[in-house]
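Here is one such protein, fold included:

. . .
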Amino acid sequence: MKKLRAGIVGCGNIFPMHAYSLRELETVDLVAVCDTKQDRADTWSKKLNVDAYYDYETMLKKAELDVIHICTPHHVHREQMELAMKYGLDIVSEKPATIKYEDYLALMELQEKTGQQIAISFQNRFNPASLKMKEVIQSNDLGKVLAARAYLAWDRSDEYYGKSDWKGTWDKEGGGVLIDQAIHTLDLMTWLIDQPVTDININMGRRGHSKIDVDDFVEGTITYGDNVMSSVHFVNHYVIDAPIELELAFERGLMRLVGDVATIDYHNGQTLVIERNPHDVFAIDGVKQYWGVGHKAFIAYCYDNFLAGTKIQKNTLEDVHRTHKLVFDMYKQGRANFQLK
C-alpha cells in the first residue's frame, strides 16, 4: 500500500489534533515534527517515534515529505506555506491562512502557479451536526434563510495571554477573539448562509483584559445577500468556555447549533436533533473537547484526495476566502473606532 509521508511544524496546543488524526490513517506515515522550541519537538518526537527538527527549512530539505501540516503562530503561516510550495509539498494549515488580506491574495496567486494543494482547517464544517445542517439547507425544506445570530463567550485570561509570545498581538496573532476564537463560528455561519456579505456594522474593543492590545469583544451585525441580517456577539473575557450558539431562522423553521448539537424545528411541528457519537472523542491530555471531532474527518478527506491525485474541493483557499475577507473587513472597520474600557 502506498503511503504519504507527512510532517508537522509547530508542536503547540493544536498539534495533537493533527498528529493523532494522522496516526489513525493507514495511508499516512507521520515521519517528522518541527518546532523552534527544542523541548517541544523532542517531547513529541519521543512520544510518536518520529524525527525531530528545530529548523523548518531543514525539515523540508531532509525529511522527504509529501505533505506538511502548519500548526504555528498566525503570522508565519504565509511564509511557511510559500516555502512548502517551493519544495513541492501539499499543505494542511491551521486557520487563519494569513493575517493580512493582501497576503491572502498573494498566497492564492502562488498556489495557482505552483499547482500545490492547500487546505485550511475550518474543521467544524466536518462535524456531524454542521454537515446535517448544510444538507437540510441545500434540500430547501426550510425555504429561504431570513436572519441569523451567533454567540461565543469564552475565557482567555491575562494569564493565558501571558504564557504566549505571540497571542494577543496585532503583528503576530492578527487580533484577538475574532481571529482566534470566533472565526470558527463566523465561518460556520458564512458557510451555511452561503451568500455574499453586503454590509458590516460592528463595534470592537477591549473590556476585560489589561495586558493585551487586541480585541476581546466584537458585537454588531453582518448582512448577507439582500437582507439576511445576522447579529454577532463574541467575547473572550467570560469565566468559562460556554458552548457556542449559532441560530438561523428560515421561512419554514428554525435551526440552532449549541456546542456540537444541532436542533432543527420545522414549523409543521417536526423536530430533528443531530448529535455526535459520544465515543468519538480525543482521549488525550490537554486536548479541548469543544474543538470537536472535525479534525479527524477533515484530515482524512484531505489525504483521500492527496493519495488519489485528485483536487480537494472543500476548505481550499478559494472555498474559505469569504470567511477570511469578512474577518479582515471587520477588523478594518472595528480598529478604526476601537473601544477601550
In short: The mean pLDDT is 95. The radius of gyration is 20 Å.
